[in-house]
């Protein structure tokens, strides 16, 4: 009677001699038969999960030992017909014994996830692709040659649908000819500012000193800019808090240096010129306007700032590259074990980073990040204000753009519309007097500030190839330092500088001057 023995460990039976006749085996899912020879050495059999493998033995089998029944199981249909079924990814041994306990056949069965369905899908989705799929246990390995990184990424995306977890797909494909991408970027920023300041300051004191006095005053606060930034200041003032002393010497035969008496008849010839207001000594002032001052302050400024950066970067397909034209400023990050302040450096300036991916037909997918930043007092922070060890940290004014674009080699794309406009205005006035026609302007002060910022980024991408060293140029090509006589008598620092640029070859490539500036 035939028996089925399932062991939980690998059988260590001595593989004795057996019939040397070939054993014919085939899979139920694939009608093609494969010859498996009998003998002492175990035979390797790859079996996809969920499929079966039939074995025809040359002699009657009495026992079948499967070391790991969770991976595969064996079914005896007759003493010479046995079917092995793959249950789960893994490896196991299957040993067939005759009635005397001798080994008829030893198999090492490897059950994997199966890739026939995946390979068919890859052939339909990417016809002509050289990517192959292989299964190892419950994982899938993609190998072969891909036409582009995008094709390899699509194959990995399809393979993830056939496994239980995305990390069970190992993409080991190679890309034919790794492309290099050069990115030429122009960053143009224009800042326009306009400042207008017009203010009136008035002060007046009415009434004699020692009596009841009335005070009147109005001044511009410059609430927008904080202070008058420049310009012109002018006005008039009058002070009668004290009368003037009588001028001397006097006419009319008075001794030199004596005080002239006050006349009531309009002054006689020889009397001083201030006879009508002057008194001997000083007085308390007049009954009317005792002190007055009126000042006008005006200022106007128009500013224009232009920032331009033209970085050129080259990166291998799929790899990131970055560029920074600016600097770094320190920021306190904490204290060490000794109590010393530790700092970190933050970058600022014109920064560019990109990651190119070359697609089919020469198209380039770009992840571009452009940033323009500058140090400013707005948003700054002062630590320990009022102490000798205070630290002032500046703020950052940042304009940032991050995009993912697609364009052909040699194509251009503009990132524009990054506009910012700020308008602030302040009017100070004297209540009730500001609405007077014409004269109301004398009791109003205006502080006005307008700022506009526009950022434009132009991106040009090229798929490039290495060139001959003889076509390269540097700013030092053709430079010859002047001799002492030329420097002393003619003020020359160099005899010659710059050579003609190499002639551009016909065909593809950049047109016009590219790279270093050669005078």
Written overview of the protein:
Mean pLDDT is 75; it is low at 1-36 and 501-507. It is built from 3 helices and 27 strands. Strand 21 (341-358) and strand 22 form a beta hairpin. Strands 15, 16, 17, 18, 19, 24 and 25 form a 7-stranded antiparallel beta sheet that branches. The protein has a 5-stranded mixed beta sheet with strand order 1-6-9-10-4, with no helix packed on it. The chain is elongated, with a radius of gyration of 48 Å. The chain is 5% helix and 50% strand. With 519 residues, the protein is mostly beta strands. The longest helix is centred in the first third of the chain and has 11 residues, at 149-159.
Continuous helix count: 3
Measured distance between first and last alpha carbons: 100 Å
Element string (H = helix, E = strand): EEEEEEEEEEHEEHEEEEEEEEEEEEEEHE
Relative strand content: over 45%
Backbone structural class: mainly beta
| Extended strand count | 27
Keywords:
519 residues; mainly beta; seven-stranded antiparallel beta sheet; five-stranded mixed beta sheet; 50% strand; elongated; disordered N terminus
Provide a concise account of the structure shown.
The chain has 519 residues and is mostly beta strands. The protein has helices spanning 116-125, 149-159, 484-490; strands spanning 5-6, 23-27, 33-36, 43-48, 52-56, 63-66, 72-78, 81-86, 90-97, 103-112, 130-136, 139-146, 169-171, 174-175, 180-206, 214-218, 232-239, 289-309, 312-316, 321-335, 341-358, 363-383, 391-408, 412-429, 444-464, 480-481, 494-496.
